[in-house]
């Protein structure tokens, strides 16, 4: 797979990364660890070098399931890959709500405890890219960035970033310790963060879209009759998977199918290629539990869309009827 630099940071990763959350969290009960370990090894073999996790991707019984999985599975390849993990968030598992509300905590002492725990679970002496999982309104961005600068000096992390950040937060944090990447929700159905692109380009920051396939809808593998396990699979409550939403999204799905046919590709590959061809510093991180999807997503990096084709897609998306799309869970202070 082709490689890309995240902004102007000097950090190079595979053009498509692997979001590993769904192996342990939010997409049904955790997958079999042996099978996922084999899948992660195969990912390295076919060219993935960028793996995304977080200290909170797990279950109420084991909230660190995903980091532990990656630590064991990727240890043999550690010098060939980039691991991104996150701090500053926990789930309110006692709320009785699914998805669980989010509780932020980016106090310096909490960050220090988090980084030590992640280093141990990932079985490594450094974290390549360490994200603030969500902005904590109780802790100034400058203070968080100061802790990141210290962790970089100590060699515990090499780069840092923020997830779901705004321009103000990015600028304030970046002025203290340069940010390598911003990881925000982004897909053909969720384009509001395109307003950040000029800022990211100005500051030399990479953009890492999570949920780049709108939680899988843009893979065109689901129908109005698709069902998901309530309680463990968040798609059961996502608006784009309601039966009536497939009628609302008929034109969108028709667009990606038509483009896929023209480019001898799949709808998922078109959805990923569309964002890859927008900026050279965009690196999406779709997730999967299946080798066939792993291969399919990687193939998106070989699809070329011209600037005019991207503009035409954007123009169509601007006026297209779509259903609501999942925008994330509520944050509690």
UniProtKB/TrEMBL annotation:
InterPro entries: Aldo-Keto_reductase (IPR050791), NAD(P)_OxRdtase_dom_sf (IPR036812), NADP_OxRdtase_dom (IPR023210). One of its GO terms (cellular component) is cytoplasm. The keyword Repeat does not apply. Signal peptide: none annotated. Keywords: Oxidoreductase. The keyword Isomerase does not apply. Residues 16-317 form the NADP-dependent oxidoreductase domain. One of its GO terms (molecular function) is oxidoreductase activity. Pfam families: Aldo_ket_red. PANTHER family: AFLATOXIN B1 ALDEHYDE REDUCTASE, ALDO-KETO REDUCTASE. This is Oxidoreductase, aldo/keto reductase family protein. It comes from Paraprevotella clara YIT 11840.
């Amino acid at each position: 797979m082709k490689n890309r630099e995240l902004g102007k940071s000097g950090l190079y990763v595979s053009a498509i990364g692997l979001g590993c959350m769904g192996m342990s969290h939010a997409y049904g009960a955790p997958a079999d660890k042996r099978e996922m370990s084999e899948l992660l090894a195969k990912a390295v073999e076919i060219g993935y070098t960028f793996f995304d996790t977080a200290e909170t991707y797990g279950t109420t019984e084991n909230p660190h399931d995903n980091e532990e999985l990656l630590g064991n599975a990727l240890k043999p390849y550690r010098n060939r890959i980039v691991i991104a993990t996150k701090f500053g968030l926990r789930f309110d598992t006692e709320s009785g709500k699914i998805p669980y509300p989010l509780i932020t905590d980016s106090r310096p002492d909490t960050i220090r405890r988090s980084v030590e725990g992640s280093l141990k679970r990932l079985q490594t002496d450094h974290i390549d890219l360490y994200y603030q999982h969500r902005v904590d309104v109780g802790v100034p961005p400058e203070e968080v960035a100061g802790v990141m600068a210290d962790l970089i000096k100590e060699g515990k992390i090499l780069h840092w970033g923020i997830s779901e950040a705004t321009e103000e937060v990015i600028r304030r944090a970046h002025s203290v310790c340069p940010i390598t990447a911003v990881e925000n929700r982004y897909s053909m159905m969720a384009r509001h963060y395109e307003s950040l692109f000029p800022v990211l380009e100005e500051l030399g920051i990479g953009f890492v879209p999570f949920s780049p396939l709108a939680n899988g809808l843009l893979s065109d593998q689901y129908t109005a009759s698709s069902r998901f396990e309530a309680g463990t699979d968040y798609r059961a409550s996502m608006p784009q998977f309601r039966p009536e939403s497939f009628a609302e999204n008929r034109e969108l799905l028709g667009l990606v199918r038509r483009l896929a046919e023209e480019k001898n590709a799949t709808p998922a590959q078109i959805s990923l290629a569309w964002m890859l061809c927008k900026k050279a510093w965009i690196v999406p991180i779709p997730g999967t539990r299946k080798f066939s999807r792993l291969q399919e997503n990687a193939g998106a990096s070989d699809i070329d869309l011209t600037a005019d084709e991207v503009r035409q897609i954007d123009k169509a998306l601007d006026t297209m009827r779509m259903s609501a799309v999942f925008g994330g869970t509520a944050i509690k202070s």
